[in-house]
C-alpha cells in the first residue's frame, strides 16, 4: 500500500542529503516535491498545501541538533504531520450497549457486505462478542445469499427476511431477535447504489432513526481516491456517521482517501481492509500508517498479528524444543501454517523496516510455501521427527514424491539446518529473553 507515495517522498527527502542545516531555500525545494507527491497520490490540493505549509513552519522553527541530520529532522516532522492528518490517534468503536448496533453504510461495490462479515469475525475473536449479521440489502441480487455464505465461513449467524423488502422493519425485527437469543452485537449490512441518490439516503436515514445505532461506519473503496472523499462528505451530511472504513488498501491505491478524508469530514478512520481473506482487517492506527508510508515498517502490527495466531502454551513448548535442538520438520511446517494465517506475505514483509522496499518488485503470492509444504509432506513421520536420518536415497524418494528435484530438497534441508542453528542461538544467547514466546518461522 502507498508504494508510489512512499517512493516519491523518499526521493524528495534526498534533496536535503548532505546539507549542513535547514534553510528556507532547501526546505522549500524539498516541500515542493512533497506537495507534488501528495497531489499525485490524489490528495486534495488545499489539504496538500496546508500540510506542507505546517511542515515548513515547524522545520524552520527547529533547532537542529548537531547529532541529527536535516533530512532526518524533516522526516520526523513529516511523519508526525502525516499521523496528525490521518487523525493523530486510534479511535475505537462503541460497544457498550447490549446489544450494540453497528450500521454499515456506503456505495455499491465498496465492499460493505464483505466488511460486515470481517468485522463480525474480528469482534468475535478479539472482543469475545457474540455477533448477529443482518441482511439489510434487499435490492442487490444475491446480496442476502452472499452474506449467508460469509456468515457460514466466519461462524456468525445471519438474520434475513427474504420476503420482506423493508430494511427498517428487517432491522427492527433483527434487534428484537438478538435480544431474545442473547446476541450482544448486531451488524446491519445496508443497500448501496452506484451513486449517491436521495432514495438511498432517505432509506438509510430511516434505518438510523428506527434502530438508533451505537456506531455508523461508512465503508469506502480507497482506490476511488478523491471521489471517495466527496462521497464521504455527502454521506456524512445526511448520516453524521461515526467512523470511516477504507477497503481495498492492498490494491493499486494512491492513498489520497486515507490522507484526505479525516480533514474533509472530521471523522476518524477506524478500520482498514487489506485483502479478500476474512481476517484481512486491521484497526487503523495513524502513527503506524505514517510509519508504513515513510518506509519505516510496522513492527507493532506484525507482532500483534503473530500474537493472535501463536498459542502461548505452544510457544513455550517450542522454545524448549529449540533450546534442546529438537526443532523438527513437524514444527517447521506448523510455523508456516501460522504465518499463512497472519495475512498476505508481501504485506507482512512490508511491515519489517527496510524489507518492504527491497521486495517492492518481487511477486510474492500466498502459494510461496507450496513447494516447501509438498517436500515436507512427502517425508515419512520418522523423517519429519528426526531430520538427521534423511540420507541421499531418502532425499531422492522425497523429491520424486513431492514433484520437485533433489536440488530443491537439498536446499530446503540446508535452510532448515541453518534456521535451526540461528533459532537456537537467539533462544539461548543474549536475545533469549526477548525471543521467548515468539516462534521464529523458517526463511
How would you characterize the overall build of this protein?
- With 443 residues, the chain is α/β, with parallel strands linked by helices.
- Helices cover 55% and strands 9% of the residues.
- The protein contains 21 helices and 8 strands.
- It has helices spanning 3-13, 24-40, 45-60, 70-85, 112-126, 143-154, 167-181, 198-211, 226-239, 256-265, 286-293, 299-309, 312-323, 329-341, 345-350, 355-358, 370-377, 381-385, 392-402, 406-428, 432-435, and strands spanning 100-106, 131-136, 158-159, 185-190, 215-221, 243-247, 269-273, 281-283.
- β5, α9 and β6 (243-247) form a beta-alpha-beta unit.
- The radius of gyration is 25 Å and the shape is flat.
- The protein starts with a helix and ends in an 8-residue tail after the last helix.
- The model is unreliable at 430-443 (pLDDT under 50).
What is the topological layout?
Layout (H helix, E strand, L loop, with lengths): L2 H11 L10 H17 L4 H16 L9 H16 L14 E7 L5 H15 L4 E6 L6 H12 L3 E2 L7 H15 L3 E6 L7 H14 L3 E7 L4 H14 L3 E5 L8 H10 L3 E5 L7 E3 L2 H8 L5 H11 L2 H12 L5 H13 L3 H6 L4 H4 L11 H8 L3 H5 L6 H11 L3 H23 L3 H4 L8
Parallel strand pairs: 1-4, 1-5, 2-3, 2-4, 5-6, 6-7
Antiparallel strand pairs: 7-8
